[in-house]
Amino acid sequence: MTRTKRTRIVVLGGSFGGMTVAHELRRLLPREQREITLISRDHSFVFIPSLPWVAMGHQTLKDISFDLGSSLISKGIEFVRGEAERVDAQVRAVTVDGKEIDYDFLVVATGHRSANEAVPGLGPFDGPGHSLMSPPESEEAGDAWERFLDDPGPMVIGCAAGASCLGPAYEFAFEADHALRRRNARHLVPITFVTPEPVLGHFGVGGFGRARQFLEGEFEERDIRYHTSVAVSRITDSSVELADGEAFESRYSLIIPPLAGARVITASPGLGNPKGFVPADDGYRHREFDNVYAVGVTVAYPPVDQTPVPVNFPKTGHMTVQMAKAAARNIAADVRGGDRVVRPLSVRCIMDLGDRAAYMAAWPVRPPRNRVRMSVGRRWLWAKRAYAPYFLQQMKSGRTWLL
Fold first, then answer.
1. Which domain holds residue 199?
2. Total structural domains in the chain?
3. Contact 196, 294 (CB under 8 A)
4. Same structural domain for residues 23 and 106?
5. Burial of 146 (0-12, 13-18, 19+ CB in 10 A)
6. Is 288 in the same domain as 312?
7. Tell me: the pLDDT tens digits for 235-266?
């Protein structure tokens, strides 16, 4: 009896994109047809959208994470913890900690590298500025926030030029305002919000609905000064400086940096563009290597529009899950035959406002759009708080079709 050769599928990255692809392929391809390996340098899956809550002290990293290895192995997916160093797309192999792992299909879901070096002084570990783009940074920002509360003063929150993940800065501004009011200390803390966006609520997608008017109204009602179309040039212990020479006093500075591609992409000839992002078609297949797919932040997307100060296209967790499901369907079609899928991305997010939350949705994410919705209320804050543990449980158990 001839044994069927299994298709070797290697997934780089253990966050939203990588985990979704791995579990979707486990469901779409029979066990005897596939051999799935997920490679990650991290041992835990972390629900990244909750990092602002970690910084505010509402949750710990343990609350929003689970162990990758035990979750994957229980579902028959091989887990390799290590640093992917290089991809040789010609010979179809990934080098991990000096060892080569061969593949028939590769899915690049490596996420991002925070380019904190783009803003001098944006630490958190080698400068006074704080960020929220990784679990260690969110914990450091939280420790600094606790110290700040003991001796409050002016603070600056915002995003650097070229940033694409803008939502956490807005959330932190609203959460900080709410927390200070509850302590009757808001009068001690002038808050300034700085952003490269041409208007509030642009979000790198050209804005949608009444987001601009809503956010302008919220900032004005809460006495949060805001400056648009600005580039942060330097962060010091006592100020945030802009490229135009203006400076704001600040004793707590949290700035979201621009993102760069993971180092494994820049170290792999032909895999990515000069910035380290992977060019892919509408089905998330590499434009040169037909057995390589990319999902999530690592996908190269052009900006929606040209702005005076660069603002890049965002890739949220919800969008990454959509990409991953489509990529998995297309890999399954490559293996077994069938139709490929191409679907325009939609976006849904819930922004924590401190005392309530705003639900924002648009389909498709790039204008012009068929539908746009925005709603505000306490029910959305409850929904946001409930969704994180729900998502974690579904992802941990591999029930990605319910996400």
1. 116-258
2. 2
3. no
4. yes
5. exposed
6. yes
7. 999 999 999 999 999 999 999 999 999 999 99
